[in-house]
Amino acid sequence: MSAHRLKTKALCRRWHRCSELGEETISGPTSDIVVTNGRLVIGPQVIQGGVAIKDGVIAAIGRESSLPDSKEVIDVAGAYILPGVIDPHVHFREPGLTNREDFASGSTAATIGGVTTVFEMPNTVPPTAGADAVMAKRELVKPKSLVDFGLFGMVGQTNVDRIEEMAEAGVIGFKFYLHQTIEGMPPCDDGALFEAFQRIAAVGGVAAVHAENPEIIGRCSAHLRAHGHSDVTANIAARPTVSESEMVARCIAYARAAGNRLHICHVTSAESVDEIASAKRRHLPVTAETGPQWLWFTEVDAAEKGMVLMFSPPFRSEGDRKALWDALQDGRLDMVATDHAPRHREEKLVASVWDAKSGFIGVETNVPLMMGAVDQGRLSIQTYARISSENAARAFGLWPRKGSLLPGSDGDLTIVGVGAAHAIEAERLHSKAKVTPFDGVSTTGSVKYTILGGQVMMRDQNVTGSPRGRDVVRA
Ligand code: DOR
Ligand code: ZN
Ligand code: ZN
Predict the structure, then answer these.
(1) Burial (CB count within 10 angstroms: exposed 0-12, middle 13-18, buried 19+), residue 283
(2) pLDDT bucket at 29, cuts 50 / 70 / 90
(3) Is 108 in contact with 69 (CB distance < 8 Å)?
(4) Rounded Cα gap, residues 469 and 148, in angstroms
(5) Does ligand 1 have an atom closer than 6 angstroms to the CB of 187?
(6) Which atom of ligand 1 sits closest to the CA of residue 266?
(7) Pairing relation of β-strands 70-75 and 462-463?
């Protein structure tokens, strides 16, 4: 706090000194935008006040009386002011799969949902699996993006030797699909995985893993199929919790030996949480995410709702679901990520699970749902600020530029409130593919404004800004 006060005081002193000297210019605005009458969530504290942003960067925070003048003043009427929300796991499907989503539609959905930064996944066509693909994707998507973005590079069996060039090209992290071949790229075997982790350690990167064991899944699937199982619960039976937790444990063992940072994507089970907690107790640099879908739905819901809950990894028991909430609360899980994976009805809501595509959207509904959970007392607002923004920024080397309301941080704010319950309506969402299991689910959380680099990108659910997203290269 003292750092903020010092900065605020410094601004005031400058202003007063000018005024004593009688300079004419001091009556002019000294910041570009001031957000007032909010509740700032800063570390363990919630402070009444506001934020001043100048040149895209937070210039001051504190009580209204301490903030500099501004061209634009927004009174947020008591809403919470959070550091801009980061969704560290989205699939915006560009290039190659843009009938499902592209950066314009995906980032519109993100902005309306209160997200200011996304980390975008490389399982596109072609996959983002070399420096050329990283740079081409950046050029392609930057002019369309309403949010800041980091790009993941993909690593599989045949491109381990391209890790260094992708690091050079500025990827936010390296993504491993350990459960299946992606666009012709088979998953790493154990030898390639360990070598890849060593190379990532050498470039100071983060390995992010989709941790499921393909051999267990393959064998179970074949068995279930042969016995005529084809509803959505067969996808759950084919992917027992050990197929996830064993791969989590294996990745932790290799990362410990290689010395790299490791991030576990979409954790769904208590067993996996135990492996991650054990790594954290040993002070290994291991972080992990889970998503609203696993916090809301179980295998029982899948049996009831059917193919809409086709997702990989799948939905687990009520005990697992509860373990995920507990782990977010006490820090064994670090962050919420949606795994926003748009799928059209025709490719998903089909008769047999063996033909159904896995995934659904989530980037737009995440913050309203999680703020509803804050309203219900499942999480404190301070914990939510950490798991929605700060921890992702820290894990991927962006803090305090992102994930922080400190002066000097990017002027990214997510301004949220709670109020009357309202139901999510899939057809009103902004992604190209509307299928979501949250259609009709009620929440009391809402997003009032999304501010990116001091620009109001969304106000009362309307987009007000134009594309200005930047690639946030890992520090
Ligand atoms: O269900 C999923 N869908 N899981 C993944 O890991 C990938 C994603 C996709 O890209 O559709
Ligand atoms: Zn995945
Ligand atoms: Zn994913």
Answers:
(1) exposed
(2) low
(3) no
(4) 4
(5) no
(6) 6
(7) unpaired
Ligand having the closest approach to the CA of 123? 1
Class of domain 84-395: alpha beta
Q: Rounded to the nearest 5°, which phi and psi values hold at 436?
A: -150, 140
User: How far apart are the CA of 354 and the centre of ligand 2, in A?
Assistant: 18
The amino acid sitting at 48 is Q
Q: Spell 195-220 as b/e; 16+ CB within 10 A means b.
A: bbbbbbbebebbbbbbbbbbebbeeb
Q: Where in the chain are the domains? A: 1-78, 84-395
**Alpha carbons within 13 A on the beta-carbon side of 365:** 30
Instruction: Give the residue whose CA is nearest to atom 3 of ligand 1.
Output: 359
> Which of 25-34, 190-199, 240-249, 338-347 is the least confident region?
25-34
| pTM, rounded to two decimals | 0.94
pLDDT in tens, 174-230: 999 999 999 999 999 999 999 999 999 999 999 999 999 999 999 999 999 999 999
Cis peptide before 400 (omega within 30 of 0): yes
Q: Do 466 and 161 touch, CB atoms closer than 8 A?
A: no
Q: Which string of b and e fits 254-269 if b means at least 16 CB within 10 Å?
A: bbbebebbbbbbbbbb
CA atoms within 13 A on the CB side of 106: 37
Q: Report how far ligand 1's centroid is from the alpha carbon of 341 (Å).
A: 6
Tokens of 235: 């996808």
* CATH of 1-78 given 3.30.70, 3.30.360, 2.30.40, 2.40.160: 2.30.40
d(CA 243, CA 69): 57
Give ∠ CA 434-465-137 in degrees, rounded to 5. 65
pLDDT tens digit sequence for 399-433: 999 999 999 999 999 999 999 999 999 999 999 99
Q: Is 91 in the pocket of ligand 1 (CB under 6 A)?
A: yes
